[in-house]
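Task: sequence in, structure out. Protein: fructose-bisphosphatase.
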Amino acid sequence: MKPQKIHTYNSMPLPTTITPPSLCPAPIFPPNHPHFPPRNQFPPRPIFHRPRMATLSGFIAGSQLVGSSGSGGGGDNEARTLIEYVGGGGVDVGDDLVLLIHHLQYACKKIAALVASPFNSTLGKHTGFAAGAGGSAGGSGRDAPKPLDIVSNEIILSSLRSSGKVAVMASEEDDTPTWIRDDGPFVVVTDPLDGSRNIDASIPTGTIFGIYRRLEELDDLPTEEKALLNSLQTGTRLVASGYVLYSSATIFCTSFGSGTHAFTLDHSTGDFILTHPSLKIPSRGQIYSVNDARYFDWPDGLRLYIDTVRQGKGRYPKKYSARYICSLVADFHRTLLYGGVTMNPRDHLRLVYEANPLSFLVEQAGGKGSDGKNRILSIQPVKLHQRLPLFLGSCEDMEELESYGNVQQKVNPGYEV
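Result:
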């Protein structure tokens, strides 16, 4: 008997071009074998090249990948990188800021790899840093810097030095700002690794940053004085701000004053790809994010607000749910996507490093940032490590929250700041 020829998947000829997914014919399954089509009915295996920009539309169904537009664009299905976006593909921020963002994203990629490393728990032993060493800006206790905080701080500082575009960097990890160069056009404020105490439990962490123009009118002042005053600018003077979320995906979310946009790290190319263009926070959410273990320490207004929305008796007639990660970047990222409010009613979060950059982002997305009474971006910092209550979220939710009046927690019984 003549042997039957067996078709194998690997024996099929390989094409030299990729057939667009929309043109690939759907396989026809025999009625008696609905789940096991013959092997020769699988589409041919494509050859993947590494183009300058990867085309992902055929592999991420329903994604929010934005296409290039304008002259020379690659069509609606072509992914755009962070550097292409800031270099004129989405906004034109100028060559100096493009170079700064390039170095900043590189630093955040290094931190992402560091956070995911199996060796990060022993990092302090190999670097000579000890937990609590260095310039702890926030004092002792819960916020004493861990080794990863310090190393992340050094990574960012090194990248900013390399950019040649930064005059001064102010960090949550340092007591005083670091003057880098006299002719740097920008000032960078940063929380290098927010939520680092959660790393051992694999809880998301993040980097927060804000970028200002150097105040040239201060150039004749002594270095320490001009470094401090440059770092104490109000949030209304921000040129750009952002955060990088280190989680199941590494997400670089930023704004340059023309909307809020999120880029996701493509590990195959090393590029941050625009996945969430022009983010708009919903005007209402159904989630509040706060450590409600402190419920009995809260002022009456905040307790009444939470009690009301949990029961679905607020202005929005649905029962709210609690979601709290205890990682500011992660809680804020979820709120930005789904709406609601994320908050810390205590005088705990830093105006310069956390409140201003995140308030800039949420306002650019159509939301609101407040200390419970005042717009965050309008507050003039008077100290580098100034703390305050922070409420961020959907416009209508924030207005309802503030209408209760007494929502700032001014006492912390049994709880060390």
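The chain is about 25% helix and 20% strand.
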